[in-house]
Write a structure and sequence with these properties.
Layout lengths: L9 H5 L7 E3 L2 H10 L3 E6 L4 H11 L2 H10 L1 E6 L4 H15 L6 E5 L5 E5 L13 H14 L1 H19 L10 H15 L16 H13 L3 H19 L13 E2 L7 E2 L2 E2 H18 L2 H17 L10 E2 L2 E3 L5 E3 L7 H7 L2 H11 L31 H18 L7 E2 L2 E2 H17 L3 H17 L1 E2 L4 E7 L2 E5 L2 H18 L2 H18 L32 H12 L10 H11 L1 H6 L5 H13 L6 E2 L2 E2 L9
Parallel strand pairs: 1-3, 2-3
Antiparallel strand pairs: 2-4, 4-5, 6-7, 8-9, 9-12, 10-11, 13-15, 14-15, 15-16, 17-18
Helix pairs in contact: 4-6, 6-7, 8-23, 9-10, 9-11, 9-23, 10-11, 11-12, 11-16, 16-17, 16-18, 17-18, 18-19, 18-20, 20-21, 20-23
Length: 630
């Protein structure tokens, strides 16, 4: 066992028995690097990441590669879900250096934590024109011995570039708000896949914040643009639900599709995807009167209740892409795929015929070779369809699916990451609260309330007013980041709207006041991602990208606009602070508005706020939520 053995992070514990002499992020490792004058190898990932598992098996479990790492470097492992600040800083560097990013992330640092080289996945040997991991290690160790000054100069340049990037100044929006919104809409319209939904070709990610913006935009405009925005959302949500991206037996959605038609997913299931997709399906279902979307919502929330909820009522982080097949070998997607021989053993001939036609199954498997680079899915089928079930077939199909679900449940399950992340729980609380209110489901409201209660009891310090980032195995990990505050505040506002219980609004106000104190940039406006005072964080960043998870500033802008309807707040000028966020993010809004769709949702709201009248008494606002919230 190495130094990760004492960690509570499921990801770090996965590497606790590696022959690599790993250290967690902290002073012990930094001191070792300084005293031994060695560079640091920093590896960042998360426990349900398929390619993290691949690199771990190929390189970190290999004795010879581990010997190179131990000889020439001080090796540090970071769980990106526990330390998003560290991940964000070095991911920005890697993206600037290589033009792309992802996990596992591999970065080499000076003992002062300044980066001088980085990348993502490296193969265990030189192959297909790619330099293998051992070659990289040997070349960098030689450079460190023979040309250290050059690497340190490169590290200094990298830090200066990161500092320059972080110095985001307020500026005026170059365009009218309506022009910015229309510019973003036009970019997504041009990249929209008319046949299969989604944007661009492959791989395809759900990115629910884009769909939420398009729905919000559709309410702000009239004529053809509104119809087209709704069409893009409807087709995308329909095709995602029909394809392999949705788990047709157990509910919930996988992380992304490797192909254009949503057939072959990357099989991990993340809590934040379930939460945001529920919100997108809910908003679209109500706006378009698509009742089938409500079935998708119920299936997704039932999955979360069944498989991602702790005994205390909070929500776990994720389920892995990999699991053991019938021979005991771990493979991606093994839990979810089927061979025709398996189906024939479980079902009658008539049932096999029905499910084969409906889900496009094939005797040789329905997964194209080009989407199965390791040959793990050969001869297997993914349940996916190109059109919805006929009403006449619905009942027999449901019986077949129940049989398969029971049989699948006996398989070796994917690893579940049982971290309880505050920000992601906030997103899920919002989903349950809004779905509970809109669908008149008291159980969903109960789920939202008990998760919020868990966080208040276990991840909140009432004496200092501080949130913590995550909870796992009875241990609290790190103080909260701006995204934890923003997403939980949003959840509490949604709970208040759904239940009219002022306790949630009161706590939201307390948290907003603390968020302002810890993260607000007094000089330039907007929120830093992390609090001041961490000596090991070279640069405090402001996130300006709404990707798989919405950025803290984007969520906070909407929260502040919601607070602006109320009187007797614990803090002042929420609408003015929201405006300062837009000004701080003006460079992105002017040049690349599609980078921040969640912020565009807030921008839609901002165009309405000044013209609306609010009636608030006793600190409670009587005006209903803005249209973008159901």
């Amino acid at each position: 066992m190495n130094s990760l053995a004492a960690s509570s992070s499921p990801y770090l514990l996965q590497h606790a028995t590696n022959p690599v002499d790993w250290y967690p992020w902290g002073e012990e490792a930094f001191q070792k690097a300084r005293s031994e004058k060695k560079p640091i190898f920093l590896s960042i990932g998360y426990s349900t990441c398929h390619w993290c598992h691949v690199m771990a098996h190929e390189s970190f479990e290999d004795e010879k590669i581990a010997a190179l790492l131990n000889q020439y470097f001080v090796c540090i492992k970071v769980d990106r879900e526990e330390r998003p600040d560290v991940d964000r800083l070095y991911m920005t560097y890697v993206q600037a250096l290589t033009g792309s990013g992802g996990w596992p992330m591999s970065v080499w640092l000076t003992p002062e934590l300044k980066p001088f080289f980085g990348g993502t996945y490296f193969p265990p040997d030189d192959r297909h024109g790619r330099v293998g991991f051992p070659s990289v290690l040997l070349q960098l160790s030689q450079l460190w011995r023979e040309n250290r000054d050059r690497l340190q100069q490169e590290a200094e340049r990298a830090v200066k570039a990161l500092q320059h990037l972080a110095r985001r100044h307020q500026e005026e929006l170059n365009f009218k708000k309506e022009e910015i919104l229309h510019h973003a809409y036009e970019e997504w319209r041009q990249s929209f896949d008319e046949r299969w939904g989604g944007f661009g070709r492959a791989p395809k990610f759900p990115r629910p914040s884009v769909l939420l913006f398009l729905l919000s935009y559709a309410k702000c405009v009239e004529s053809h643009a509104s119809e087209q925005a709704q069409k893009m959302v409807r087709v995308t949500l329909e095709q995602m639900a029909l394809g392999g991206l949705q788990d047709h037996l157990g509910g919930g959605f996988h992380r992304y599709s490797v192909d254009r038609i949503w057939q072959v997913p990357h099989f991990e299931k993340m809590l934040y995807d379930q939460a945001q997709l529920v919100l997108a399906y809910l908003e679209a279902g109500i706006m378009m009167n698509e009742k089938v979307f409500f079935d998708v919502i119920r299936n997704t929330l039932d999955y979360v209740i069944r498989d991602l909820t702790s005994l205390e009522g909070a929500f776990y982080a994720a389920e892995d892409a990999d699991s053991k097949d019938e021979s005991g070998i771990k493979k991606e997607g093994a839990f979810y795929v089927w061979s025709m021989s398996e189906l024939k053993q479980l079902l009658t001939s008539g049932e096999v015929e029905l499910i084969t036609a409906h889900y496009h199954l094939q005797a040789e498997g329905n997964i194209p070779e080009e989407y199965d680079p390791h040959g793990e899915l050969t001869g297997k089928n993914i349940l996916m369809c190109f059109e919805g079930p006929l009403q006449a077939d619905l009942e027999p199909l449901q019986k077949i699916k129940k049989k398969l679900f029971i049989a699948r449940d006996k398989r070796s399950r994917p690893h579940r990451d049982e971290k309880i992340v505050t920000a992601w729980n906030g997103l899920m609380i919002s989903a349950f609260a809004k779905a509970g209110a809109a669908l008149k489901n008291q159980h969903y409201l109960k789920m939202a309330k008990q998760a919020a209660t868990f966080i208040k009891k276990n991840l909140y310090d009432p004496h200092r007013g501080l949130l913590h980032r995550s909870y796992c195995g009875g241990k609290i990990i790190a103080e909260g980041f701006a995204e934890d505050y923003a997403c939980l505040i949003q959840a509490l506002l949604d709970l208040h709207d759904a239940t009219s219980d002022s306790i949630w609004l009161s706590w939201a106000e307390e948290l907003q006041e603390k968020m302002n104190e810890l993260f607000w940039d007094q000089a330039q406006g907007g929120y830093f991602s992390s609090a001041a005072g961490d000596p090991h964080l070279l640069v405090r960043m402001k996130e300006d990208y709404d990707g798989a998870e919405p950025a803290a500033n984007s969520v906070a802008a909407s929260n502040l606009l919601r607070f602006s309807r109320c009187t007797m707040l614990r803090f002042k000028n929420p609408a003015m602070m929201a405006e300062q966020i837009f000004q701080t993010m003006a460079a992105t809004l002017n040049s690349s508005p599609t980078a921040v769709p969640q912020l565009l949702v807030a921008l839609c709201d901002w165009t309405k706020v000044s013209s609306q009248q609010f009636q608030c008494t006793d600190g409670t606002c009587s005006m209903p939520a803005l249209e973008v919230w159901v």
